[in-house]
């Protein structure tokens, strides 16, 4: 089946069952990867399951050594990986160059902390009657984890989750996006090249391939759109397996009257336009308090005018904003801007697609309101709609007027006010005087509320324990012939037991001593 023309930048599944990848910036064919037939997906899952027990038995130190070798391989092949990644995604080199360093932070974090996070945990019993019990929690990996990722971070997407799952002792079957599968294919080839155990593989194709992965694994880690996420949640529920869903966002930025306006402008620029706005926690809408609104907008427009749109070459850093990854994504951005303009918004800069490649000009819009798609639906593009608000109360009401709840940011010089306002955000992550970087903080959970997801990634101990089933061990400190509540039941013993239960269970003397 041919989904697109040869010059299109959409992936095409051709008659010979290949996903063909073209560069979104130039339209050139970058490469192709065969669609993995279902029997091969089944076989890969079975193989990975077969290898997993030895991987688990190797322990955290042994696993960390393999992850370390893989990190070294990724660093040694950084240029060739990034070159491929840039061509299949159309990013600027500056955006491209973020991906390997970001991934290595996560590999190192889980490799260095897994032993501590996964150690058996001794916990205290509760209640006098249980005083002699010895309690322990063990963490045992789900044998096979499926990691399904989107196109916006072809390397960082998988690397945000896979190192934690591998360090937990799981095997991982990954499924990269059909729009950018090539660099991940190389990264997985690197795992094989270093001779690592057969516990990481990838399968390729479209939605059906992802759905096959969901059929075969014990835990699904999914990143992508809300619609696909909901479909996966249903499929996982039918199999009674857990899933973690990292979905879309509509992140609000609130600029208070006492903010450092210059810093806020720079934050809005990078947070709104990095990766051409194609990050789930990109700034999607901005609310500015009246006293600093004019200054903020004027500075934002003049800084936007200095940004360079295009796909530069390796190490050149001569472009800031790259291409939209897909024609479909470009169309969504155009539609949101056109909808806003038709309802009265003013475009101060940008507002149109370029003729060559899938580029959309960085755009600042004002006179926007919540009747417009650009304020309510995920745009995932280089647009910053800016709204003037009377006060913080109105800003917060608007920020929370959304079905999404991924992240947000608050900009003020008053730290106490920032914390108080952060509590009011209906999101899983709040930045104070910053943007986006929360996604890179492995020690804190990163998860969306409402339509933005289910569960979380990262989050210190919880971020690796989520790939494990718990096993509780209940033993006795002292061995008695038998427990007092075991047979035989007798009136005398029964009376004694209820008196004791009352004595330790009640919290006032009348109930302790009688009825
Ligand atoms: P998508 O949902 O279309 O696809 C994501 C992945 O799911 C792809 O690999 C795709 O092949 C696969 N897939 C499609 N149908 C499937 C099915 N029925 N079963 C299993 N797998 C299936 O998303 P996209 O357009 O590639 O990515 C963009 C979205 O991802 C945006 O909404 C963005 O906000 C979101 N995203 C979220 C985060 C986060 O951490 N919250 C990070 C990055 C991107």
Automatic annotation (TrEMBL):
Active-site residue list: 246
The organism's place on the tree of life at top rank: Bacteria
Pfam families named in the record: Aldedh (PF00171)
Similarity-based family: Belongs to the aldehyde dehydrogenase family.
InterPro entries: Ald_DH/histidinol_DH, Ald_DH_C, Ald_DH_CS_CYS, Ald_DH_CS_GLU, Ald_DH_N, Aldehyde_DH_dom
Listed CDD domains: ALDH_DDALDH (cd07099)
The entry's keywords: Oxidoreductase
GO molecular function: oxidoreductase activity, acting on the aldehyde or oxo group of donors, NAD or NADP as acceptor
Lineage of source species: Bacteria, Bacillati, Actinomycetota, Actinomycetes, Mycobacteriales
Record's protein name: Acyl-CoA reductase-like NAD-dependent aldehyde dehydrogenase
Residues annotated as domain Aldehyde dehydrogenase: 16-473
